[in-house]
Amino acid sequence: EIEAIGSREELLRHCAKEHDNLLFGMYVGADEKDSGNNIVSIGQGGLTLRNKEYYTSDDPQNVMVREATKEHMKNLFVLAGYSDKEAQDKVRRIWKLETELAATHYSMAEQRIPEKNYHKMSVDELMKACAPFDWKTYLKDYRYDKTAEVDLGQPEPVAKACRMLMSAPLEDLKDIYRWQIICGAGSLLSDDFAQE
Asked: Structure pTM?
């Protein structure tokens, strides 16, 4: 299915319809400031290693985890049928995008500060905050078209993710999607995947 996607718009429409978010997270949950109501929450995401320090720190432990993760990603792409070189190229492109995105992510400590992670706004305000990404179309394709307000948890990382979705090469975005599918399906695939 991913192979047949020929445009950025088609990719975003497909991801929305499948509820597969490439570079940010989105879910419906209780409004932190109005627990009697639910709200669409949008926050940072899109990193294989959830903690930004794995991407930005040169601490020896972080470097070791980073390199082991890249090798693991390459091995899974090979198991999925790509040549060693194709797998290495995919990992390099994915890692480049993830590292760029990680630079804007909130640290674990910042994520624990409630007032820093709650920004209720209208969909029109979301459109302005994350231009040129078309949130109205994305929410409609997601089947959240009745959404009037959202909580934009971490504005800077989400805005960066939206700009990247509109500017990164289509094939790189498709590689991220391929990787997310492989990761998500690992337990359903052969023992080789589970043991990797």
From this structure: 0.90
Region of 81 (left: φ > 0; alpha: ψ -120 to 50; beta: rest) is left
Distances (CA, A) of 184 to 6, 24, 81, 135, 188: 23, 16, 17, 25, 9
105 token code pair: 């992510």
Q: Decide: helix, strand or coil at residue 86.
A: helix
Q: Can you tell me which residue has the tokens 């400031």?
A: 33
Distances in Å between the Cα of 75 and the Cα atoms of 47, 79, 127, 179, 190 are 18, 6, 39, 11, 14
Dihedral (CA of 141, 143, 144, 145) sign: positive
List pLDDT tens digits, range 146-184.
Answer: 999 999 999 999 999 999 999 999 999 999 999 999 987
| Rounded to 5°, angle at Cα 16 from 12 and 19 | 135
